[in-house]
């Protein structure tokens, strides 16, 4: 856990804010997912059902349901006779994940240069103000969401459902790793400038340079 604070600080209150129409296991899953993806839980941190249930003021049944879902997402693992833990990626796994992400993101921006609409391009340009505000205030959680939404918008502009499906399988693990990279000094500001270049090249339909910037952008994060 980062900074000595519980990643589930104020958990019962957060849980109650989620839509009641959602099943309890789904709401518990969302709280734990946010804690892992935003970096509140460090890789390798234990996920103890009893302790989590007490913090969330629920039984252990929905907690175990949520942990099984997180295992399916590739964000948690269960070790025999030891319990649940936040997944730790090996160096090789991270390199393989980023290799695949680089290929998919480059393909995504290439298609976006061919298929982006005027409204999608306008949204990308306007969205930069959100990233700038997050940088100016040092709000890295807001920056993480800005970054996630920008890449999702480029993917949407590519208009390829199979590509969207493949990226979806990697999304949560990418976000988990991204929570670490955006806290490297100077990295968010550089990434913001790279985003600006990407948007400019998408706006001029320059697929060659857009791919070049995207490849550098993702490999720099690695």
Q: Which properties best describe this structure?
A:
single chain, 222 residues, mainly alpha, three-stranded antiparallel beta sheet, 3 strands, elongated
Walk me through what this model shows.
- There is one protein chain.
- This protein has 222 residues and is mainly alpha-helical.
- It has ten helices and three strands, in the order ααβααββαααααα.
- It has a three-stranded antiparallel β-sheet.
- β2 and β3 form a beta hairpin.
- The longest helix is centred in the middle third of the chain and has 25 residues, at 91-115.
- It is elongated, with a radius of gyration of 19 Å.
- The model has no long low-confidence stretch (mean pLDDT 89).
Short précis:
This protein has helices at residues 11-17, 24-37, 49-56, 60-73, 91-115, 118-137, 140-158, 161-181, 187-203, 207-221, and strands at 46-47, 76-79, 83-86. It is mainly alpha-helical and 222 residues long.
Output the structural class: mainly alpha
Mean pLDDT: 89
Question: Any idea what the radius of gyration is?
Answer: 19 Å
- Give the SSE string: HHEHHEEHHHHHH
Biggest β-sheet strands, sense, barrel: 3 strands, antiparallel
**Strand percentage, roughly?**
under 5%
Uncertain segments are none
Number of helices: 10
The rough form would be described as elongated
Question: Tally of extended strands?
Answer: 3
The span between the termini is: 22 Å
What spatial order of strands do you see in the largest sheet?
A: 1-3-2
> Could you estimate the helical fraction of the residues in percent?
over 70%
